[in-house]
Design brief:
- By secondary structure, the chain is α+β, with helices and mostly antiparallel strands.
- The protein is built from 19 helices and 29 strands.
- The strands form 7 sheets. An 8-stranded mixed sheet has the order 3-5-1-12-9-10-11-20, with helices on both faces. Strands 7-15-14-13-8 form a 5-stranded mixed sheet, sandwiched between helices.
- The model has no long low-confidence stretch (mean pLDDT 96).
Length: 791
């Protein structure tokens, strides 16, 4: 076992413990960015001037009326930017648009006021003259107009033409599914000030402090060293705060620079919904070939992502979607083409899974639709196409699939834990005796790659300080958004140093403590930062072992530190308390701080050819979901969910189980409830987001929770080469929720004859389920067109 994976005796990692800030969360004592406003004097409030046209040329912006509003201090415009007027890394997102507004609600300038109300009234007074331009709202609009942006990658393996020629069955179809709103509890927020040294200090709700720092610096025309960004914690992020916070932080920093006063920016919920990007909606066309036994022999797909008005992270999102189309299935002949539609909507961005869910959903939809036409149970069709151990199989982009046996292991354990075979018989009996209510049961699996697509991002740093009283302070580059990263880092540090958990404290994430950090994203927060923290702690432990060895008169290799006590090997009662050891080290002038670093080894990726091994490893899991559907309304309930998920050797089991549960529920929301609607009419509201609040955008609530919800972590699943043998857990569980949609497909199909392919909308709202049932019933007396699905 590698040094990184090996655990000492009695480790603090692996212990089920609550989130380190749980008590602060539930008591309201946890501080977030906007809470700091009430600890800051002479603050100004920023408010956007939004233009409610979908696409228009800017002819004039008159800010003078705003300055006449009592309490308005300044209006920020493009003319005030001393550096680069851009909020993105692709240089296609002007911080202050000067030529065009590109989506409904685009902010063209910002008003600073003594109060939020003054700033709001000032923003309402700003006059913007525009000239309407043609707009594209849907992916279909963009395809028809040939409006695409960014790269058009291609993943291919084998020969699809030969594969289709040899196929016994060929099916074609298309599939479009919705985007998704992050709906984090804390909206975008930033608080900026200029300190006594002239340094820009920004508190930001950001998943990527270093990139926020970089964008703020280039907007202000400064070096990165002149800007410090801190993130206390976020009230949720889910990817929505990876790229999108940078511009808001830059606005606050610009205002603070120009006025000399702290500036606070916090979007209200409607502003956040109308100004920030979503999960990318996709359109897919596909052609699938199967042999006589139901094995996939060829698959040709084209994925079109809705990028919105600018690129943001659309290119890597699309790349990851293409790299996850195969999911858990071996496809010998594959051709996966991708492109990004340019539409007049908010610029879509990262969202938990980062394109992986979109690619995997296409594959699961294909198998769910084709199974009846092949005369196979969908569970059996999926099982027949799994990656298999000992076959030397690689993904379509060329990466070997390590531990494919875990695909089958999680699947079999779900079947056993969920008593699936007996329940299938019960469901058959129930459906035969209930004309207007049907049940469905489905199992789906996942194979999700862990690492950033861009190899350079797979690095992390840490700074660990030991004070002479024995207390320990950790600084690392990851951000806490409720996912428990800080909890795991405390456990990693305590385990590595050999001290009780209460000895270790964690500092807020700051760019002046750990530079050049990667985003806390791609499920890699614990992998990267945990290894960096471990590296720093190992350096300190080695120094302390030298000190203890001198005291004991033995070799350092014969000293152990555990439970806060240093002892030499062998008989005897010699020992040294941790606090005394640290004070002794200080008196001997031993350095008690260390900078740790980690970079993920073994990665290589050619973005042009879409070939290589971009992932450190794959996370696996399986989920079985049972639903009950009302044939009159399409309303349904989730009766039971059984999950077995692979997190390696868990760093913190309670945290990981919570992440699996939360990810599944968020995925179920995307799959079944969260129906984003945009005005696609030709009227004055064209391009307006219609689902602007929780009253119109349905989020999962307690009433949608599974009545029985069982989550099991796969045992004996050490991941070699990962910190203490653990695996990432943030994103992969979301895709286990595909089982909900597939169970609804099964239930809808039960209203009609066997062998009918069920087309089901995404999200599978009660309305979509009703129309699927209606379609099944209407086709009860007619056979499906041979070789065609969902056209």
């Amino acid at each position: 076992m590698s040094h990184l994976s090996q655990r000492p005796e009695n480790p603090v990692v692996g212990v089920a413990m609550p989130h380190e800030a749980a008590s602060l969360h539930v008591t309201g004592a946890a501080l977030y960015t906007d809470d700091l406003v009430y600890r800051t004097k002479d603050i100004l409030h920023a408010y956007p001037v939004q233009v409610f046209e979908t696409h228009a040329r800017i002819k004039a912006i008159r800010t003078e009326p705003a300055l006449a509003v009592p309490g308005v201090v300044r209006v920020l415009t493009a003319a005030d930017v001393p550096g680069v007027n851009d909020a993105g890394v692709k240089h296609d997102e002007p911080l202050f648009p000067t030529e065009e507004v590109c989506f409904h609600g685009h902010a063209v300038c910002w008003v600073l006021g003594e109060t939020l109300e003054a700033a709001r009234l000032g923003a309402a007074a700003v006059e913007v003259d525009t000239e309407p331009l043609p707009s594209l709202i849907t992916i279909a609009d963009a395809i028809a107009a040939d409006a695409f942006q960014g790269a058009q990658p291609l993943v291919q393996r084998g020969d699809t033409e030969t594969g289709f020629a040899e196929a016994e069955h060929i099916f074609t179809g298309e599939f479009q599914f919705s985007d998704q709103e992050h709906f984090y509890l804390e909206t975008h927020a930033a608080l900026a000030l200029v300190d006594e040294n002239g340094q820009i200090f920004v508190q930001s709700s950001t998943q990527h402090p270093s990139e926020t720092q970089e964008i703020v610096a280039h907007v202000l025309g400064l070096t990165n060293s002149e800007v410090t960004v801190q993130c206390l914690r976020m009230g949720g992020g889910f990817g929505g705060k990876e790229m999108q916070p940078h511009g808001f932080a830059a606005i606050a920093a610009l205002g603070a620079t120009l006025t000399g006063r702290p500036v606070r920016l916090r979007l209200n919920r409607t502003q956040d919904l109308t100004m920030s990007g979503k999960r990318h909606g996709f359109h897919a066309t596909w052609k699938a070939g199967f042999d006589a036994d139901g094995h996939l022999v060829a698959l040709d797909t084209t994925l079109t992502a809705d990028g919105g008005w600018s690129l943001d992270l659309s290119e890597p999102v699309l790349a990851r979607a293409l790299c996850h189309l195969d999911n858990t299935y071996w496809v010998p002949n594959a051709r996966f083409q991708g492109r990004i539609a340019k539409t007049n909507k908010t610029s879509n961005t990262a969202f938990r899974g980062f394109g992986g869910p979109q690619g995997m959903l296409v594959m699961e939809d294909i198998l769910g639709r084709c199974a009846p036409l092949l005369g196979l149970d969908p569970m059996e069709l999926r099982r027949r196409n799994f990656y298999r151990p000992g076959q030397g199989q690689t993904t379509p982009y060329g990466q070997p699939v390590r531990h494919p046996e875990r695909i089958e292991a999680t699947w079999e354990q779900v079947i056993e834990n969920g008593n699936i075979e007996a329940r299938k018989r019960e469901i058959e009996l129930f459906n035969a005796t209930h004309e207007h209510t049907k049940r469905g049961l489905a199992i789906t699996g996942i194979k999700f790659g862990i690492s950033f697509n861009l190899t350079a991002f797979n690095q992390a740093g840490a700074l660990v300080l030991i004070y002479k009283d024995g207390s320990v302070l950790i600084n690392h580059g990851g951000t806490e958004m409720g996912q428990g990263l800080h909890t795991k880092m405390l456990q990693v540090a305590a385990t590595t140093l050999g001290v009780p958990l209460h000895k270790v404290r964690l500092a807020p994430t700051r760019t002046d403590k750990v530079p050049n950090t990667s985003a806390t994203a791609a499920s890699s927060g614990a992998d990267l930062n945990g290894a960096a923290v471990k590296n720093a702690c190992e350096q300190l432990r080695e120094r302390l072992l030298q000190v203890a060895a001198t005291q004991f008169g033995v070799n350092p290799s014969d000293v152990r530190i555990a439970d806060g006590i240093a002892r030499p090997l062998g008989p005897g009662e010699k020992q040294l308390e941790w606090n005394d050891l640290c004070r002794t080290a200080y008196m001997q002038r031993v350095q008690l701080s260390a900078s740790g670093f980690y970079r993920t080894e073994g990665l290589h990726w050619d973005a042009k050819t879409m070939h290589g091994s971009p992932f450190k490893y794959f996370a696996y899991g399986s989920a079985a979901t049972e639903v009950e559907v009302d044939g009159f309304t399409g309303a349904y309930r989730i009766r039971r969910v059984d999950i077995v998920h692979d997190v390696g050797d868990s760093l913190s089991p309670l945290i990981d189980i919570g992440q699996v549960e939360g990810g599944f529920v968020q995925g179920a929301g995307w799959m079944t409830l969260e129906d984003m609607r945009w005005d696609v009419s030709d009227g004055p509201g064209r391009g307006r987001l219609l689902t602007q609040a929780a009253s119109t955008y349905k989020l999962p609530s307690f009433s949608e929770m599974p009545e029985v919800f069982n989550v099991t972590l796969l045992e004996n699943a050490t991941e070699e080469g990962a910190v203490f043998g653990s695996k990432a857990v943030g994103e992969p569980p979301l895709m286990l929720a595909f089982s909900v949609r597939e169970a609804l497909r099964q239930a809808a199909g039960a209203f009609g004859p066997a062998g009918v392919s069920v087309e089901l909308g995404a999200p599978a709202t009660p309305e979509a389920v009703f129309w699927a049932i209606d379609s099944v019933r209407s086709r009860a007396e007619s056979a499906p067109e041979p070789g065609r699905v969902g056209v």
